[in-house]
Amino acid sequence: MAASAGTLLLRGMKSGKSYTIDLYVPDAISTYLTFNGNGLASTTTPDNYRVPEDVVIEDISVAAAPTAVGATLIVNSAKINGAAIRWANQLASLNNRTKLALGLRQGDIIQLQQF
Questions:
Q1: What pLDDT was estimated at residue 64?
Q2: What are phi and psi of 56, to 5 degrees?
Q3: Which value, in Å, is the radius of gyration of the alpha carbons in the chain?
Q4: Exposed, middle or buried, 66 (CB in 10 Å: 0-12/13-18/19+)?
């Protein structure tokens, strides 16, 4: 496979605002996804994202599954137990993607590391 594009969808808990963050998904294990809230993510965009308000991660989708099986959510430099995202379940082509409900606090810095 090759590197892929992805999307992270956050919903503000108080505002109800939707945040759509573009992702760059490298095709290698142990790599970090990169994030861009203002356009297309690439190899040069940051490998972390600061949450603007208390939010819930509602969806993560990838255009194609990379070599890695999935990614682990890291919040403020700590891996979150039970927050492993499996790419096979999050393909953009699936209309029944696994629904997510992962809460994050304003100012949290998130990363996604592939495994």
A1: 86
A2: -120, 130
A3: 13
A4: buried
Q: Strand 49-50 vs strand 109-114: parallel, antiparallel, or unpaired?
A: antiparallel
**Residues of the chain where predicted confidence (pLDDT) is lower than 50:** none
Considering the entire predicted model, what is its pTM? 0.91
Are 24 and 64 in contact by the 8 Å Cβ rule? The answer is no
Strands (E), the chain: 4-12, 18-25, 34-36, 49-50, 55-62, 70-75, 78-86, 102-104, 109-114
* Cβ neighbourhood burial of 77 (10 Å; 0-12, 13-18, 19+): exposed
Can you give the pLDDT at residue 14? 97
Residues in the chain: 115
Residues 54 and 85: their CA atoms lie apart, in Å, by 21
Quote the pLDDT of residue 65.
Answer: 75
Q: What is the DSSP letter of 55?
A: E
